[in-house]
Structure formats: structure tokens, C-alpha cells
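Hey all, quick one. A colleague (J.T.) asked me to put the zinc ion job into the tracker so the inputs and the C-alpha cells live in one place instead of scattered across chat threads. No bug as far as I know, just bookkeeping. Sequence used:
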Amino acid sequence: MTIYETVIGLETHIQLNTTTKIFCSCKADSWFDPPNTNICPVCCGLPGVLPVLNRAAVEKGVLLAAAMRSEIRPLSYFDRKNYFYPDLPKGYQISQFDQSLGKGGYLELPVPAGKDQPAYVRMVSITKLHLEEDAGKTKNEGGRRLIDFNRCGVPLVEMVTGPDLRSADEAAQYLIRLRQLLRWLGISEADMEKGHLRCDANVSIRPQGAAYLNPKTEIKNVNSIDAVREAIEKEVERQIKETEAGRRIEAWTLEWDEDTGKLRKMRSKETEADYRYFREPDLLPIRLDDEWKRAILANLPELPLARRARFMQQYGLPEYDADILTSERGLSDYFEQAVTAFGGDPKKVSNWLMNDVLRMINEAGVSASQLRLSPAYLAEIIKLVESNQVNTNTGKALLEKVEQSGRSPSEIVAAEGLAKVSDDVAIRAVCQEVLAESPKEVNAYRSGKVTLMGWFVGQVMRKMRGKADAALARTILEELLK
Ligand SMILES: [Zn+2]
């Protein structure tokens, strides 16, 4: 039996989060606007208008190219891609063809361990990275074809990978990492459901180990990471079945139907359409001199995968922790600030952050930087617990109290009398009180039911409103019950 290998390349369209469109001053984000209300003669391509390039779109494109380790061309050109489609009022799209902003590049994609295999790193090459304008949208409604031009002229980066991914899971991982990177760089909201990040997948199969490529199909219209995974899995299954039955795979374009979870054949893919590319005569080339490039790259932060590796190395964090703490840039900054303020074992900070603070963040639906519980306050709480001034439960309660009031942990401890009672005399008095009130339990304990110890400790903690040193209470109780 032949063992097949899956070969996947992904084409992504990334909507840059500029304020205005790429060649006019209409606002870029019109998600909530009624159709055709965010348009002007430039983005609708009326005769006689001239495009003016948005500087911010170039700068965001350069940041992405740098993060993908692309070579950034000092001189890149815009070209007209000519095709006729109702949502393209000009009859051409301004794009970049042979001399685009980025050349080559790659992403080192960490793939987590699965059932049968350890974790590994997949090198994913980038074969295309260019700037272009978006087209409008069409939809069918009541037998009519409706067109909305609001999206015309929204800045996009088109980025295409080589046929380097080997499973639906790897494709999903690539999109997860790309989304993380785009948000980290602050260049796109990368929300797939809103079309900020769109993905087409080219899928083929071949006998494992083969070096050639078989005809591929292209899956379009997948707008979530789960849908990408599911659509690819279904298509691979179909291709294996066809091949095993002795039939040829034809280069179809398939459309994913979110509602039915099925792939539908859109068209047999013709040979590469003739777009009659030529240089855009209304725009100058992008001249990226050293000074401008330096100024842009000064804003390139440490990238998420590099920071993840550094967290493991510098702070001795397990991969699991490092992965979660670098899932978002604000969270990873928060962690580092808390570690610096705490000054002790970084793993302790990681535990508090991942167990309790993350839950607070998720419940409140805010980002780490918006918490009133600042990294310094978190560090203060951990110090109070570590130095035995409050017990762990009080520490956890303090997280919420600080978040609600915005007051410092030590202020709250002083005001509410939350300091842990480790005073032997005070605890001893309460232990004696508890034993005097529970003769039945004392007898049971003395006749062998030693599991009651937990209950006694609980009674002492309750009387002392949770502030007693539980370990000390246990020692005293054991002594009194001898
Ligand atoms: Zn416009």
C-alpha cells in the first residue's frame, strides 16, 4: 500500500490596520459601515483620479517583511493586474509583480508534539510578499448580485508560502503563528472572521519521499483556523481515494462551505490567467533609503518565537509556560516586569500569572496592560506569600481586591487586617477552644480516626478568618491531641 505525503502551500491576504486606505483618504476599516458609504472617486476608479501612496502601509509592510526574514528591496514598483470582475471598478488592481517589497524569507515554525511524534521545527519558505489594494465584495441576495465597494483600496499584504507544509495541523500552526506575529507587530488585527487574515490553501498528495509535485487543488473561502484544518483534511482524504481508484487529480478550485462542512467545486482551474501586468504609470516606485528603513526597523520588537526561546533559556521556564506567556506581546511584557519587580524565582511568577492572573484577564476580557493589578503589585503579593506574611488563599484573594480597588496589596493587608497570624499563643488558644467545643470528634480522633485532623485545622482556620498559619495550627493540634 502506498503511503502518501501531504503537500500544502498557503496564500494569505493580510489587511493592514492603517487609518486610511492605501491610495486615498477614505478610512480603511469600514466593517460596521453600510455598503458603499466609505468610498471616493479614487478607490472607485473614476476617470482622471490619481492614487497617492499611504506611507503607513509601506512601513507596516516593511515590518512584516523584516519579521519574515525577507530581503527588503530598496526600490520596489507597483504594477497593474488587469482582470474583469464586478467588484473591481477600475478593471485592474494595483499590486506588485516582479519587483515587490519583499523577496524570499521564511518562518521557522515550531510544531508541537503529537500522539506519535515529538515536537519539531518546520522551515516554511516565503515565495511572495507584496503590497496591494483590496477589491470590493459581492453577494447574492434575492436573486440579485449586490456589490459593496467599501473594501476597495484597503491595504493588503499578499504573502505566499512554498509547498512546505506537510499536514493540516502544520497549516493550522502556521496560521496561528502568523496571527500571533501580526498582532505582536501591531500591523493587523488579524481577525479571520472579519477577513483581516484570509487564507487559500493549495493541496496535493504524493507518495512519501517523492521529490516531484502532483497537480494541486486550491481551497478558497476558509475563514477560520479550524475550517482550514478541516477543509484540508477532507481534501487530502478525497485525493487519496481518487488516486487509489486510479483517477487523476485535476487542478480544481474548491470552495469551502462553512455551513455544511463540505468542499464544492467552483471551477476547473484554467492555466494561469493572463493578467497583462504592466508598471503602474500613476505611482512612483517605493524608494526605501537607508534612513527611512532604519527608522522603520527601529520599531521592530523582539519577535514572539525569539522571546519564547529566551524565556526558556534566561528564566528556566518550561516550553509550555514560555509558549503561553509569549502568546501575546502585552502579556510577555507584563511577565518580565513582574519578574524584575519580584527578584526571585521566575517560575513562581509564571505560576501565579498562568493560574490566576490569566483567568482574571480572560474573565474581564481585557489585555494584561489594562489590569489595575500592575506587574509591581503582582510581585508584591507573591513576596507577601513567599515571606509568610499572608497565606496563599489570602494572596489569591488579594489579586481580586487589588484589581477591584486599585489599591496596593500592603495597604489592603493593613486596612483589612489580613496578615497571617503565626503567633503561637493566639493560635493555641483557638485550638483549645475548638477541641473543647468538639468532644465527639476528639474521642473519634483518639480512637483512631486520624483523618479528622483536616477537619480540626479547618475549624481553627474558620475561627481565625483564614489568617492562621495552617501548618502551625496542625502542629499545635497534634500536640494537644496526644
Ligand atoms: Zn477612497
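Adding what we noticed when we looked at it: DSSP finds 15 helices and 17 strands in the chain. The longest strand covers residues 120-133.
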